[in-house]
Amino acid sequence: MRAESRPRPLRRRAALTAAVAAALLVPASTVSAAPGDPGVLGTAAGAAGSGTLPLRDLDLDALTIPELQDRMDAGRLSSVVLTGAYLARIVALDDELGAVLSVNPKALEDAAASDRTRQRKGPRSPLEGIPVLLKDNVDTEQMPTTAGSRALLDSEPDDATITRRLREAGAIVIGKANLSEWANFRGADSTSGWSAVGGQTASPYVLDRNPCGSSSGSGVGVAASLAQVAIGTETDGSIVCPAGQNGVVGLKPTLGLVSRDGIVPISAEQDTAGPMARHAVDAAILLQVVAGTDDADAATAEIPADLDADFADLDLDALQGARIGVWTLTPEQAAQVEDDTEAVFAAAVKQLEAAGATPVPVQLAYQDEIGAGETPALLAEFKRDVNAYLAQTPGEHPADLAGLIEFNAQDPVELAYFGQELFEQAQAATVPAEDPAVQATRDRIRQLARASIDEVLAQGPGPEDDLDAVVGLTNTPAWQTRYQSVDGQADAFVYSTSGPAAVAGYPNVSVPAGFAGLRGALPVGVSFFGARWADAELLDIAADFEDQAAAREEPGYLPTVGADPQPDNPQPGT
User: Fold this and answer.
1) Of the residues 180, 195, 203, 238, which is catalytic?
2) Is 135 a catalytic residue?
3) Res. 460 pLDDT band, cuts 50 70 90
4) Region (Disordered) spans which residues (predicted)?
5) Going by C-beta distance under 8 Å and a sequence separation of 6 or more, which residues neighbour residue 210?
6) Residue 192 domain-assigned (yes or no)
7) Using one digit for the tens of pLDDT, what is the confidence trace for 85-131?
8) Could you report the per-residue pLDDT of 384-406, keeping only the tens digit for each?
9) 258, exposed or middle or buried, with CB in 10 Å at 0-12, 13-18, 19+?
10) Helix H segments across 74-158?
11) Residue 77, Cβ neighbours under 10 Å: how many?
12) Is residue 57 part of a domain?
């Protein structure tokens, strides 16, 4: 791909390098390292250019949070050393990856405080001392929250509810992850992983390939071991697609399980934050910390009182005796999806069988009507919800959507690679409170999306006939990153199964399943989705499949594997 096709703002790179340098220059008096630790950076700096980072002879890519906690409890590792190692990887790798938009300059101070707390009182939670990346549409008081837009560079929000919960749990907010600007809801021909603030995020497997979006930096950040776990957000596909294309686990929770307070919105009818991690157990631990009711988000009041919220207590025999619906491709879809990608999905179904599950071929109804109504509903809801967010967020920034449109039209960077057609359509739309037809559309597509899943799960007259979950292909291999104004083409999105769970507000988790594409170098995931509030059960299934398939491999950072043809109908995730 041509060099000009990967725009990376020099200002962002310089600011990021300075922030990491500031974090790494914490005075020695503030650092509380465990006995025998090799210093803040240890061996990280020398090994950060490879996919495997030795940390006291351990493979950081493979380490899980429980393993890290065991070592910290035993005094063989400290949060300061762990955080310093991740900061060193950001320095070494992120200039090529563009996954981290900003770094917390107090990350090592926070890590030292965590180490002191552990020594005095013990860990506050399973995330004590664990570095976490937050997608840069999650509000943070210590760092900017921009949604990738230069219009929000001077916003001054407080911590989002989930940010506060992470800090109270002892997690180290190491930085903010780059994203598709405005969560891929600004231009019809957007390029996933690009933002005017952060530049372009690249796949760590093949650098000229797209990481999908909009949680691009979150997916790449954990895939490349720039943090242990990350928070992404999804309206439709924005957690599961970058999870699939970057070979990590990503959970879009049930709508209302995780507070959206302090998160830049697309629509309160579909938006949710969720965990992204290299390991299912880490995603479950992260969810356990951030989930729960919040007076600032009315949707969380619907969490059942008897919900199983012990998400990290995973059952690795969950597939034994389970009945899993297999969402098969139609002949038209199969004609678009490459044979090697279909082979990954077929192998995944065989692995489900090997783990004791019974696969049941299914098709989900109502998909055309759901798809036809989703974008009109989101446009109206975006206008309502982004205006409300801007109105309640302190700092110097446009007051509303109309102001954002005007800002972009005058800015020298914002519209350089694609336009703002979705912004303009949203501004022209009537908000739901003023238009019964908009609300009727939302009610109808939500009803149909829920029915499409509920009807498939209920396969027969008795509970023994029901399905435990539905599995589908998360993604086709990553396309080459292109820009509308440079290449005449943007995202070359082929296929997705994210829509029903997204519109229904039901949980959906993507797990690595294999590799396809040129040279077999590009990750492919499978997605398990199921009933409302079945997040714990889906995480059990995901963890069992992860254990059975063992499909994840660490990134290789290949420059390219060559070009392949692109389909005609790009559909970027939001």
Assistant:
1) 238
2) yes
3) confident
4) 111-130, 550-574
5) 191, 192, 193, 202, 203, 245, 478, 479, 480, 481, 491
6) yes
7) 999 999 999 999 999 999 999 999 999 999 999 999 999 999 999 99
8) 999 999 999 999 999 999 999 99
9) buried
10) 79-97, 107-121
11) 27
12) no
DSSP 198-220: TEE---SSBTTB---SSSHHHHH
- Maximum C-alpha span of the chain: 68
Whether 436 is covered by a domain: the verdict is: yes
The verdict on whether 214 is a catalytic residue reads yes
190 is catalytic: no
Task: Look at the chain and report how many structural domains it folds into.
Answer: 1
Token digits of residue 566: 């692109």
Over 80: is that where the pLDDT of 325 sits?
Answer: yes
Catalytic residue among 180, 195, 214, 218: 214
Percent of the chain at pLDDT above 70?
Answer: 88
Domain that holds residue 297: 1-10+128-562
Pairing of strands 199-200, 194-195: antiparallel
Predicted pLDDT of residue 564: 78
- CATH code for position 526: 3.90.1300.10
* Among 181, 163, 91, CA closest to 414: 181
pTM: 0.93
The arithmetic mean of pLDDT across residues 242-258, rounded, is: 98
Q: How far is CA 401 from the centre of its chain?
A: 25
| 151-160 pLDDT per residue, tens | 999 999 999 9
- Counting beta carbons within 10 angstroms of the beta carbon of residue 563, is it exposed (0 to 12), middle (13 to 18) or buried (19 or more)? exposed
Q: Provide the pLDDT confidence category of residue 462 given band limits of 50, 70 and 90.
A: confident
What lies within 8 Å, CB to CB, of 82 at 6+ separation is 55, 68, 72, 111, 129, 130, 131, 228
Residue 75: inside a domain? no
Give the pair of three-digit tokens for residue 488.
């005449």
Output DSSP code: residue 59: B
Cβ(166)–Cβ(110) below 8 Å? no
Which residue has tokens 């109908």? 569
